[in-house]
Amino acid sequence: MKKGIISIIAMFTTLVLWSQTEPTVVSETKNNGKIMVIYSDGTWKEKTYSKPTIEWVSIPAGTFTMGSPLSEAHRDERETPHQVTLSAFNMSKYEVTFEQYDLFCDATGREKPSDEGWGRGSRPVINVSWDDATAFAEWMDCRLPTEAEWEYACRAGTTTPFNTGICLNSDEANYNGDYPTEWCSKGEYRGKTLPVGSFAANAFGLFDMHGNVLEWCSDWLGVYSTSAQTNPNGALLELNRVLRGGSWRGKETSCRSARRYGNSPGSRSDYIGFRLVSLN
Question: How many CA atoms lie within 13 Å of 87's alpha carbon, on the beta-carbon side?
Answer without folding.
Answer: 8
